[in-house]
């Protein structure tokens, strides 16, 4: 259902913190985050990459968001309307490793120079490629959080839950055999989508 009651208002500062399932901070750097902005019509915006620091926190400015929006316009890949006319709901996610690989490939073969707007975030295309190559997204499971940006607040804080991937031998120490097998089955099902960062 389209929400026409309010419009998207991007905060000046957005702070995103990785936390575990108990709400405790996860201090893991180089985790790439994506922000999905939903359009009322035409195409959505999938903005990335936004990178966590060693404390597992990413600080994103409105200028960062608008730089990535400008890059979308410049890519010419799809038809977009003004981002200000988008829905107020946004989704913040830990970027899937498969998406990171697609981005790395496209920026290595198709868009091999910085797009308009990206030069305000990155010094060169090589710096952007290194961000993708050096990511640590394969060390955590992927979760997302839905937020609403329509209150005109100067800042917004969001928590994104993640779970560190355990080493396979760690299953030997799981007391509940059914839980161990469930975890293993989940990893197997993810295998096709679990490509390591930095393989290109």
Description of the molecule:
The protein is an alpha+beta fold. Helices cover 25% and strands 22% of the residues. It has a single domain (13-193), classed as Sandwich (Immunoglobulin-like), CATH 2.60.40.1120. The chain contains 4 helices and 7 strands; from the N terminus they run E-E-E-E-H-E-H-H-E-E-H. The strands form 2 sheets. A 4-stranded antiparallel β-sheet has the order 3-2-5-6. Helix 2 packs antiparallel against helix 3.
**Which stretches of 5+ consecutive residues score pLDDT under 50?**
167-174
> How far do the termini sit from each other?
40 Å
- Tally of contiguous helical segments: 4
Helix share of residues?
25-40%
According to CATH, the homologous superfamily is Carboxypeptidase-like, regulatory domain
Number of strands: 7
Compressed to H and E, one letter per element, the order equals EEEEHEHHEEH
Q: Please outline the major beta sheet.
A: 4 strands, antiparallel
The largest sheet has its strands arranged as 3-2-5-6
CATH class: Mainly Beta
Beta percentage is 15-25%
């Amino acid at each position: 259902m389209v929400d026409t009651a309010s419009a998207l208002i991007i905060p000046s500062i957005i702070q995103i913190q990785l936390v575990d399932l108990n709400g405790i901070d996860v201090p893991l750097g180089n985790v790439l985050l994506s922000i999905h902005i939903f359009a009322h019509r035409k195409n959505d915006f999938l903005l990335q990459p936004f990178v966590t620091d060693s404390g597992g926190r990413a600080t994103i400015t409105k200028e960062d968001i608008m730089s990535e929006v400008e890059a979308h316009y410049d890519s010419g890949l799809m038809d977009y309307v003004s981002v200000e006319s988008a829905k107020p709901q946004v989704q913040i996610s830990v970027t899937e490793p498969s998406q990171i690989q697609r981005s790395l490939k496209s920026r290595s073969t198709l868009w091999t120079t910085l797009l308009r707007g990206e030069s305000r975030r990155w010094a060169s295309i090589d710096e952007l490629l290194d961000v993708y190559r050096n990511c640590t997204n394969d060390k955590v499971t992927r979760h997302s959080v839905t937020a609403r940006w329509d209150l005109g607040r100067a800042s917004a804080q969001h928590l994104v839950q993640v779970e560190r991937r355990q080493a396979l031998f760690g299953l030997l120490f799981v007391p509940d055999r059914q839980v161990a097998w469930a975890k293993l089955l989940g990893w197997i099902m993810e295998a096709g989508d679990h490509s390591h960062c930095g393989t290109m």
